Hints:
single chain, Rossmann fold, Cobalt-precorrin-4 Transmethylase, domain 1, 4-stranded parallel beta sheet, alpha/beta
Amino acid sequence: xxxxxxxxxxxxxxxxxxxxxxxxxxxxxxxxxxxxxxxxxxxxxxxxxxxxxxxxxxxxxxxxxxxxxxxxxxxxxxxxxxxxxxxxxxxxxxxxxxxxxxxxxxxxxxxxxxxxxxxxxxxxxxxxxxxxxxxxxxxxxxxxxxxxxxxxxxxxxxxxxxxxxxxxxxxxxxxxxxxxxxxxxxxxxxxxxxxxxxxxxxxxxxxxxxxxxxxxxxxxxxxxxxxxxxxxxxxxxxxxxxxxxxxxxxxxxxxxxxxxxxxxxxxxxxxxxxxxxxxx
Length: 280
C-alpha cells in the first residue's frame, strides 16, 4: 500500500501552546492540579494528563479554594474567571489566541448594539464561552436553514467558531446581506483550520482511502471527515491504531492520512507503523 500524509497534520499552534502551558504548570506544582473540562478534544492527551495526576472537573465548585486550575484551550468566559478569582484559585489560562480574538470581537459587537450571528455548534465549549461573555445575546446557527425565520435588522455582526468550514461561512455571508442595512463580517475561522481543510480536500482527490485521526468529539476533526466523504472517497475516522481494520484495505490501495488539530504526532506515527506491519 502507498501511504500519503497530508501537508497539514498534527498539533496546530493553539493546541501545542495549550499543552505546553499546562505541562509547565504541572512541572512547578507539587499539589493536585485541576483541569476545568478536557483541555483539548483528544482522549490520548487527556489520559496522559490524568496519569500525571491532573483531576478533571466540570465546574469551579468542585475545586478546593486556593488550588491550581487549568482552563480549556476552547476558552474561559469572564464568569468562570470571576468565580475562580473569588475562590482564590491560581488560573492557568490555556485559551487559544485565535479563540481569544473571537471573544474580543463578540464583545465589541455586543457593546456596539449589533445583532450577533455566530456560526457554530451550540454546545461546543468555544461557543458557550462566547455566549457567556455577551450574556447569551446572539443567534447561534449551525447551517443556513437555521436562518429561515430571521427578521430584518439594522446592524448584523457575523462571527464563526474557529473550526468551521470556510465555504459554509461564505454562504451565510451572502444570505445575511439581504437581512440588514449593515453587515459586519469577521472571518474568525482559524487559518490553520482552513489550511488543514484545503490540504485534506486536495489529498482526498488523489487516494483510494482517507484515514482521519482524531477525537470523536473533536469539531475540527469531524469537519475533515465530512470534507473527505463529500469527495466520495472511502473515509474512516479513528482515534488510535486499535481501531484500524485489516479488511478496510487492499494491496493496491493508496491511503491518505490527515488528523485533527489536537492529534499528537505519536498517535499518528502509531497508526502509520501498524499499517506498515501488515503484509501488503
